Amino acid sequence: MTQDLCSLSATELLAAYRAKTLSPVATTRAVLARIAELNPVLNCFNLIDAKSALEAARASEARWMKGAPMGALDGVPASIKDIILTKGWPTRRGSKTTDPAGPWKDDAPAVARLREAGAVLVGKTTTPEFGWKGVTDSPLTGITRNPWDPRKTPGGSSGGAAAAVASGMGPLAIGTDGGGSIRIPCGFTGLFGIKPSFGRVPAWPLSPFGTVAHLGPMTRTVADAALMLNVLAQPDARDWTALPYDARDYLDGLEDGVKGLRIAYSPDLGYAKVDKEIAALVKQAVGVFADLGAQVEEVDPGFDDQLEVFTLHWFPGAAYVVRGIPAAKRKLIDKGLLEVARQGEKITMKQHMDAVAKRGALGVLMNQFHQKYDLLLTPTLPVPAFDAGKEFPGAGKNRRWTDWTPFSYPFNLTQQPAASIPCGLTKAGLPAGLHIVGPKYGDALVLRAARAYETVRPVAMPELAKLKR
């Protein structure tokens, strides 16, 4: 029974609560039992608060028994990436330089919205230090592992969140994405995750990595992500960069399909090197959209590799983070983060402003591209999950995480909505991800397209028996 409860989506749980066939308390106990069983193997959570989770579940159960749920997620277990402020819990950011004593008096907007919706918060999920890279290991929490194969990385920086959801440690997780940090781990762990348009989900404090950083849902189904986005997108005055509130229901129109949509498919953006197995799985997935009635054309959007433009935005953020840490504590910091920060310190004003101009040109190019094409499909990642504890697959001196994530960070620069949905397994049994990119503010369209694909190719969960100690 525990395994069945942990496999249910948020939508299924809510329907069962409404019918009084299932209790939030039973669900929360099952999730906590799964965490106790598998977290020692996967290292998804660095904080678990069973007491407060069960208290919240009991309160939710009482509301459901009265037929008066508190909100759209009442009684659904959820986790918070440990980069996001959570009242009463330390936000350690994967760093030994942070003070666990706090005080921790504030909920970030996304956390506040989950509480208001009645979600049961079970704990905080692991992240690389300050979310700086595309895999999840840190000096504070060690290595987080992939439930499909614990020898492999779940990706990052929202890797703890992804590994937790994929292994049944709650159906909902909040992740952040400054260069792919929702989509990378969803791609590696076989989940659905969406980076909404920048500003769609209010943030506070704002990321030190600037206006490439988004927040969004990580789930096992598209409907759960739409339901969660309804909650997370509600306004919060603390974010002055947030979009004007749009009261639309992201569940509306979710089942409208892709018939007649104009979809571009770029297997490599014109410059990326893609593993043959990944390329084949993605091409098969693209065929599903044609079968569903979309007009699919193989075409590149027409921009060059944006790696330098991205790093000229990202590395100064790392330098800013490190500069704010007392010199005496810097020896505690991840060596890779220190190296990136040193590179960030060397960036000149001219280099940065040139990158800002090139970013603007990229945004204009993609705006124009979406005048002709409703959506763009690419691989989420060019490689399957690689060995845990490494920043880069295989050999390669001075190679960074940005060298193997060519499909994700361009769309942080442009601030477009982009999602990853699983599109099959390699021969080694590792997930591949299909990347669905929409026009700016086209979050609902991305969700709708993902849902159409999901109706043909539903998300699978890994076999967990092999993970048990």
Q: How would you characterize this protein structure?
A:
By secondary structure, the chain is of the alpha/beta class. The protein has one domain (2-467): Amidase signature (AS) enzymes (Alpha-Beta Complex). Helix content is 36%, strand content 13%. The chain contains 14 helices and 13 strands. It has helices spanning 2-7, 10-18, 24-42, 50-65, 109-116, 159-166, 183-189, 222-232, 276-291, 307-323, 335-345, 349-372, 410-413, 443-456; strands at residues 45-48, 77-81, 120-125, 137-138, 142-143, 172-177, 192-195, 214-219, 262-265, 295-298, 375-379, 418-425, 431-437. The strands form 2 sheets. Strands 1-3-2-6-8-7-12-13-11-9-10 form an 11-stranded mixed β-sheet, with helices on both faces. A two-stranded antiparallel ribbon has the order 4-5. α9 (276-291) links the parallel β9 and β10 (295-298). The chain is globular and about 60 Å long.
